[in-house]
Amino acid sequence: MGRVQDKVVFITGAARGQGRAHALRLAEEGADIIAVDLCENIPTNGYALASQDDLDETARLVDKLGRRIVARKADVRDPAALKAAVAEGVAEFGRLDGVVAQAGIAPLGPQDSALAFIDAITVDFNGVVHAVEAALPHLKAGASIVATGSLAALIPASVDNPANGPGGLGYSFAKRTVAAFIHDLATVLASRQIRANAVHPTNVNTDMLNNELMYRSFRPDLENPTREDALVSFPATTGMGNPYVEPEDIADAVLYLISEESRWVTGMQMRVDAGGYVRKRPQLPAF
Hints:
Mycofactocin-coupled SDR family oxidoreductase, SDR_fam, oxidoreductase, NAD, NAD(P)-bd_dom_sf
């Protein structure tokens, strides 16, 4: 028996990157998956987002593991679309045991419009709230909610430098608000024995990190930095010298939080950051 055998988990942003890694890790341990993704680009986001082909590939890989999946195109900014996807999945599988609110964007770069700020918030924060809202009527005692935050939620001057434009400010604001939301949500749901936790990664080796906008963020001294140029600066957000962690590293944390192993863990801000937080926020003296 797997660690989440026969649980049903709803995952947003499941077409690639961390979302796909979560779907596959949970399926490996026995879960069935309800997966959604936008499968379109957002104009203020300067790198390409996942496609329908990506979501189809996630579905194929889950199926290959011998688990069931309902995969649907849906925008986390649209509560009705998420509710419909969850309802379809619950009708297919008969239950819902967990939520992984993973979908996110990082619309960095100088932009004249404040829309990048709004887009970052409506995807990265509102999208978490909408995922929880869609799932909550179906969750029972023992269920688990996991939201993806960021090291940027916990330390200053990560991507919230004005040089990164309004989208960078919006990203940090959204992730800080996710952390606060999870804290208070855990309080509200404790009496129902439904858990809520956040996972805060450092750099993760996905398309959100591996794009020209992020390279410029890490190497503002260069006009057109390459990945190789940026790679030497990536360890600035860790404390162990590594430039990033892999999506599978975050998926292992998500698996723990969805599984019964964490049945008494709630309201936690779980950092998978290779020491990035303790490097930036050293412990204050006790006196």
